[in-house]
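Why does residue order matter? Because the sequence determines the fold. Keep that principle in mind as you read this record.
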Amino acid sequence: MFKKIPHTYTIISFIIVICAVLSWVVPAGEYARRQVEVNGSQRTVIADDSYHKVEASLQTWQVFSALLQGFEKQAGIIAFLLIIGGAFQVMNHSRAIDVGIFSFLRFTQRLERYSAVKKVGVNNLVISMVIFLFSMFGAVFGMSEETLAFVIIVVPLAISMGYDSITGLCMVYVAAHVGFAGAILNPFTIGIAQGLSDLPLFSGFEYRLFCWLLLTVVLIICVLSYANRVKTNPALSPMYQADEYWRKKGAGEMEQIAYTIPLASYIVYGLVLIVLVAFSLVYPVTVFSIGRVSVSLYAVPVCTLLFALSGWLGLRKSFHFFILTILAFTVLFLVIGVMGHGWYLPEISAIFLAMGILSGYAAGNQADGIIKLFLEGAKDILSAAIVVGLAGGIIQILQDGHVIDPILHVLAALMNEAGRVVSVGVMYLVQTLINIIIPSGSAKAALTMPIMAPFSDVIGISRQATVMAFQFGDGFTNMITPTSAVLMGALGIARIPYEVWVKWFVKMLLLFVILGFVLLIPAVVMELPGF
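Structure:
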């Protein structure tokens, strides 16, 4: 089968050593850099025709200090990752997202009584809506590992609807990762990549939204086409024999969840409402700048009213629905803050931390319980945080050894002849290949963006297009690389052999890789908002 693949730490440590060796081999040189203002933000860019030779700075013992220097360099990103991981662990423990998805599935089944829905097909509608929902989760807050909890729910559901385990896996795992690739607000990829590229956080939202919608629609069409063929002739499924396990087991009983409303939920609702009213008085009007257009809206007061209504309705059902309301308004206020008030990592970290704490109290947890859950979540993300630190060490070694700029200079000379479309395609290919070895989006962003961002300045490609090349390159191959623990876990839960999955999915993967390149072309040949 597959030989043992080295641990990510081993790979990156080996790269650090190679980078140190390069400082002895590559003639030292550097570009002059200057500060410019882009979309109201200061950005460090490479000055044109400024490359010059400098004295060599050979790297030796510095390989051992690279981790500390990397942590210092990427401290904000690392802290952001730990906070996000802890906050979502507190929320996930409440089972609120589980309840939301169960409710969604029950709602779609009730639609069968409408004649228009019957024409479309309830099953087609269910598949489409589940894919859309999970794709949105992947695009907005980077759902990945969380899909494992739903594979065991949706795969039996797909079998009970007359499909196969591959259809079920596509509805959850593939949907979330297509959304992850076409990320709109994903803090783990877009947030980190743009932060490392000195871009306004979540800028270029409009074109990424279009890309995400297109990718999701294409996935829905592909899955529906396959699912309907399997429903017509089940023997066409490569999993027909193996799925006998699920057919014998049946859809199974969903785990019972207690729908309660702790007093703490009402207290949290009241406190949040008071705070939002205060913010509405302080920030009655928000000015949104989208491209060259500015729009003034009563965003905070309107959202406060909506929270008052939806929060109360959620409380009448259970604390789970109230926590889902908190999640929805966290995302909504994130958009308002980033687009209207210039939020960056401190503010975004704060709102996600508040979301986690409020969710924990609303679920009836005590302070010690919330802290324990937060630490568990931070512990789970610690591995990725250390990788980010190591990746920062790579950049530090390359910078101190004056290696980055000579490499950029040579590549720029080669790519200037190739044209911008080919250049962005090469970036996309490089990111795709790296993702097979390092599937962590956060780690890969920390490793590649500090190099790719200034390189894009040299060859005349916008940094936003470079972020999109990273985004697509990071997302699609996640669904096939054997180094992805989430993929292997999802296949294990669905009982789909890896070789069967690869053989089935490779055509769809090729389609998405090609579509990703096509979507990159407008980013380099057209003037798009945020680009």
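Residues 250-254 have pLDDT under 50 and may be disordered.
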